[in-house]
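Good day; I would like, with your permission, to put a structural problem before you. What I wish to show you is a protein chain and, alongside it, a tokenised description of its three-dimensional fold. Please examine both parts with care and let me know of anything in them that strikes you as inconsistent. Thank you for your consideration; the sequence and its tokens are set out here:

***
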Amino acid sequence: PMMSQLNVDGKVLRATAKAGQNKSGLCIVSAWAGEHRLVLGQEKVASKSNEKTAIPELLARLELANTLVSIDAIACEQSNAELIVERKGHYLLALKKNQGLLYEQVTQRMQQTKSQLPVDEHIDFGSGRIETRRCYVESKLSLYDDLRDWPACQRVILVEATREINGVISQQSRYYLSDLGLSPAAFNSAVRHHWGIENQLHWYLDMVFHEDQQRVRVGNGAENFATVRKLALQLLHRVDDKESMKSRRKLG
């Protein structure tokens, strides 16, 4: 996308869960500027289920003007859309089942009408994997009653991802709301861009720094170490050599 994009998502530090308690462990919600590989902010919550309380607190501290904020979490709520629009930003929010009637209305109608909607197809190949993403965009929103109160909402988006790995095919449909009137190709790119927070941040934190195995949980220790790991990762990304990230870390 032409404007800058900020991806917001939570990651659980699994080893911080206390033994014998039915908790997932500390969750850190991060705001990730993928084009710069930079974490611009983070918020700590007691568990993944509290993500929706942390996200507005995180958004309120960030400069959002002319920025597309993408969130794939339980944070698809009018209040977050309002907060982003008030701060002169734009939103791309994943629509989840917690939106009840709106989710049902969107999923049913998009499946019925997608053959008549503009579509973009993107195919990725790599490591024995073929992934096809078809992005359909609906601009006629008058038939979606529950969208009337959503601030400046212009588009409903459906992304159908088909993944084939070693002959095994899996499919997934995701639905999004946005206040931008972008093309299917631009929305397809923005959704792919969002997953950079998983592939370029969370994956590296686990594979290079073994974050899921870190047991520090006293006081602010877990959050402080999470911050240091992210700073270290940003420095490692700046090294211009052909070494793997694990090798770069050891060489440092």
